[in-house]
Design a protein that fits this description.
Structural class: mainly alpha
Distance between the termini: 73 Å
Helix content: 55-70%
Order of helices and strands: EHEHHHHHH
Number of domains: 1
Radius of gyration: 22 Å
Oligomer: single chain
Number of helices: 7
Length: 137
């Protein structure tokens, strides 16, 4: 139960919190297929140029937009890893798979979205001002 902010209007101080629906095996299988297709489409035509981080970020965005649950996302990444991938793609998918696998043990709330994790793991870049007062003599 959580406090109802509209308690003064409704007369009720609490309201029940609905549990998140658990996907049926058929629904999860459909989610897995959809995520696999989205990942394969994103990987299609990508160069094997060693830019693992850039590809990881693209794939993380695909995963984030897919809306798949923890189980479906983990299974989809495993399925994609079984396919024929370039070295760059295999490394990027493996890195994402490792990151996403933590949600099985800690819950999806602990990992946040995959895209958020990738941003947080990236290098810190700051663009700042400041002046230099070099005098020529």
């Amino acid at each position: 139960m959580i406090a109802n902010p509209a308690a003064t209007q409704t007369g009720s101080a609490e309201r029940p919190v609905a549990a998140a629906p658990v996907p049926t095996p058929e629904d999860e299988a459909k989610q897995v297929d959809a995520v696999v297709q989205a990942l394969r489409a994103a990987l299609e035509g990508k160069a094997d140029d060693g830019r693992i981080g850039a590809l990881e970020a693209q794939l993380a965005f695909v995963l984030d937009q897919s809306g798949g649950g923890c189980g479906a996302t983990t299974k989809a990444l495993s399925a994609v890893l079984q396919g024929n991938l370039s070295g760059t793609a295999r490394a990027a998918v493996r890195n994402l798979s490792t990151t996403v696998s933590r949600c099985q043990n800690e819950g999806t709330g602990a990992t946040g979205s995959v895209a958020d994790q990738q941003v947080e793991q990236g290098p810190g870049v700051s663009v700042g001002g400041g002046t230099s007062n070099y005098l020529t003599q």
